[in-house]
Amino acid sequence: MIDVGVKIANSSNIEDLVQIDREVIGDDHRREFIRMAVEEERCLIIASEYAVEGFLIHDKNFFNSSFISLVIIAPSARRKGRASALLQHFVSIAPTEKVFSSTNLSNQAMKKVFEANGFVQSGTIDNLDDGDPELIYFKMK
After folding, report:
1. Domain 4-140 classification at class level
2. CA distance 89 to 5
């Protein structure tokens, strides 16, 4: 069995994170966003002994509550509990009692991950992506 762990990303992880993001969304326009999150220690990675398999970026800019702004798992590491491990780890170390996140209504996989990890739907934001509302999820620490 391959040992997998969650830890804070460091600068040596940036290219791996950008590559995973590029593999998932098709480009690297979030490179600077990822780099800043790593430098500010707001990025967690999940890695095996062989490679980084995914990451989570968070902040406290959502009404002074913790907000998970991005969870990305490499396609080759999906459906192995990696997103759940990142969510659970972050909730355990979150600097606030309330943890929020969001996903598009169309993202069935992420909605299932949130619900499986005890997050409840807390609202909807329209007009971010045409015809695909953003669902806000919430969990109390």
Report:
1. alpha beta
2. 10
Residue in 61, 54, 65, 72 with CA at minimum distance from that of residue 6: 54
CA separation (Å) from 62 to 22, 36, 77, 138? 26, 18, 29, 12
- Going by their DSSP bridges, the two strands 4-8 and 52-62 should be labelled as unpaired
Please name the residue that has the structure tokens 């040596």. 12
pLDDT tens digits for range 91-140: 999 999 999 999 999 999 999 999 999 999 999 999 999 999 999 999 99
Contact (CB, 8 A) for 119 and 101: yes
Instruction: Tell which residue, 67, 72, 74, has the closest CA to residue 90.
Output: 67
CA 128 – CA 35 distance, rounded (Å): 24
